[in-house]
Amino acid sequence: MKTHIKLVAIISCLFITCSCSDFLDNDPLSDFTGDPQISSDLESQYVSLADAEAGLNGAYNKFKLDIFQFENFSYGDTQSDNCYAVPGDVPNEEEDGIRITSMNLKTQLMWAQYYEMGGAATNVIENTRLMKTDIDDASRKRIIAESKFIRAYAYFDIVRIWGDAPLMIELIPSITAENLEELYPKLYPERTPADEIYIQIIKDLEEAIPDLESKAQGTFKATKGAAHGLLAKIYATRGEKSSRNYSKVVELCDLVIKDGYKLVSEFDDLWNPANKYTTESIFEVYYDATSPNWAYWVLFSEADGSITWHRYCTPTHDLIAKFSTDDKRLSSSIVFKEVPYDTYYPSDSYPIANKIRQKDSEIILMRLADILLLKAEALVELNKVGDAMAIVNTIRTRAGLKELSVNLSQNDARLAVEQERQYELVLEGQRWYDLLRNDRMVEVMRQHKDKNGNLFFSDLQEFRKLWPIPQTEKDSNPNLTQNPGY
After folding, report:
1. Closest Cα partner for 212 from 359, 383, 336, 56?
2. Domain range enclosing 336
3. pTM to 2 decimals?
4. For residue range 226-242, what is the model confidence (pLDDT) as tens digits?
5. Among 212, 233, 253, which residue terminates a domain?
6. Using alpha carbons only, what angle is made at residue 244 by residues 238 and 246, rounded to the nearest 5 degrees?
7. What is the CATH number of the domain that holds 161?
């Protein structure tokens, strides 16, 4: 990243011509944890509670970066069997073709923005912790807790996408000739083993939860429900599937449910831009006409409702064929429009992503149906198939579908839950993570077909489960190693 490049030049100047004072006038350090401090002893850069609140708001606004307005859908849906890429967009086509490289702009962008998000949260945590005046204890705890949720969210995606990765959770003191050698590993960090990252994520969330508010409806704010839901996903993902603590996953899902969230009666109500913060939503990013999203523009239509160029995340033939025509979720998730192209479908009936419909639509990042189906997934692994299918049937009833048998075999129940998650959460950036979590990515994607019915990925390899470390990062940080296969 640009800060690493700056740092190389600054270090060179330090050893060749610059005095210490000249060196300290520069702006060398990482976007990951903020600029270096003026003092060699860490001090808070906040002088008031308003400073801390402003820092927290800035960290929340990282949920409005490209990674959440588009890349999350591209990574989770286009890369999976849910969507086709935009033709001619090479980075998107590489992602869709599961042949992404270390030079792909997407992996560079996502790496930079997730670390920007994690670094912003760390800045708030540490500067709020170091404050000595003008902050009461309750405010300090709340701001730190909400920031730890944001940092945990960023690092959970980082570890799922890249595996081992730098864990940067400290402020950097001022760089001097005396401490440069000591600080070098923090400036050029090696990759931290994935399990150590998970340990830190869990620590952040467990420390945060006591100081977070409980709510029974969505909000653009860290809450106990959001933190318990994120922890449930972490325990359902961390380590080998055979060694996961699925009882803990169920326990955490139950804590979310206990907060009082309720499924909305009509699935389509979730995607009506007027329905902000429903009882089903747990964590959603707020947008309105004065502070709009741009996700609708790349996924749905232009501002006037027209479509004059190819939208991203076009639903696949495989996906549409799976839906029952009685499933209410089909028309809520996918709308068929007339468009000026026929790349994958006839131009007079082209499927368009339909969950982010206007510039003031919220982007829901966690909702109760997701948590309920995650609980069902965990119950199946505990061989409590009847209980799991009862949850699935609750979701299916709302969708207008008949119930499935509660007496399925464990393996059939696994597939039933997986399929229900695809129907329910399509175009919400979840599918790829679901396939990875359940060791199903290679098997499912090897059966995925193109628009002509030909297999896309018959020779897909296991190493594609992780993305490559961006080459730009490896070039600027000699301590970064590459993932196998790249």
Report:
1. 56
2. 269-364
3. 0.92
4. 999 999 999 999 999 99
5. 212
6. 115
7. 1.25.40.390
